[in-house]
């Protein structure tokens, strides 16, 4: 098989993707999961499963779609043979499966084929090819998150951050195939909203403005905010903003943005999603850490004891030796409400959510969340003014750790 690491389009990747992937491979936990997968006997069942459950699109059945695949392969310099499948599903989605037996498998849902134009599909297909080209499948994030023992919270955060950067890289491959920012934007809009009606005109700038609106909300509202920032996929206005910049840059042959300027803009955008209060020296970061410290112990204790695994997760956040038996737990617990007030006084809402999400990671460190732990998490959310719905979504957002 040809060596993808030498492919000229590797240069398209965002630094946070290529450097993040290299750093992750060096993590012992990641390495051991990859090694274990490599030792498993290859069953080569993908093709059989696809042939049994989906429809393989041939040139005779769909000359236009196969011509589109050919065109994207040509643009991206993809050499491996590909097969395209469609399966019945009402969601707008596409997939690309790590090659088996020298074949790469791509798939579209029936809904996306019916409702997307060819130019829009080209972006989606290019994005999927991007995941293959940049070897994103080699770090199987889902398998790592479910592995035993569980990845540490810090590793989980690194995996999520890398995965978001990888999506931005894959989008660039999609942009290269589509070459049409309007088609990219409408594709992104349809994916995000599910709406395909003519009643809605896509205004790229308005859509991107949602990013700024959302940031403002994060700073001062009590309403719904950025729970989806915590997912592995960067949310779509951010992706579209990144694409808009990419189209203006030398990456796609335009002249207004130099590559290094583009990358620093993208790093800023990605940074919005992972501001780190754990290291920062500021009153607000300090208040957040102090609350997290006391709350992790109070949630851990809700289930009886603050278990060894919870203590380990706790130390992953606060540093080795930070948890000691001598910590006066009763006093800490009494101090929780005062610490919450400090947080509310100094920290932005978006960062409070981020800290609360970290609290749920610590709480999940030993096992599934127990009812008492869940109740204590809800009480903490209450003290932080997060609202029950948002708290529940944040708790759910780390459920992959279960
Ligand atoms: Zn993707």
Sketch the topology as an H/E string, one letter per element: HHHEHEEEHHHHHHHHHHHHHHH
Number of helical stretches of at least 4 residues:
19
- Summed over residues and divided by their number, the pLDDT gives a mean of 82
Residue fraction in strands: 5-15%
- Round the Cα radius of gyration to an integer and report it: 23 Å
The end-to-end span amounts to 36 Å
Number of strands: 4
Helix content: 55-70%
Q: Which ranges are low-confidence, i.e. pLDDT below 50, for 5 or more consecutive residues? A: 218-231
Biggest sheet, open or closed, and with what strands and sense?
4 strands, mixed
The best one-word shape is globular
Number of domains: 2
Structural class call reads mainly alpha
Bound ions, cofactors and other small molecules, one mention each:
zinc ion
In the sheet with the most strands, the strands line up as 1-2-4-3
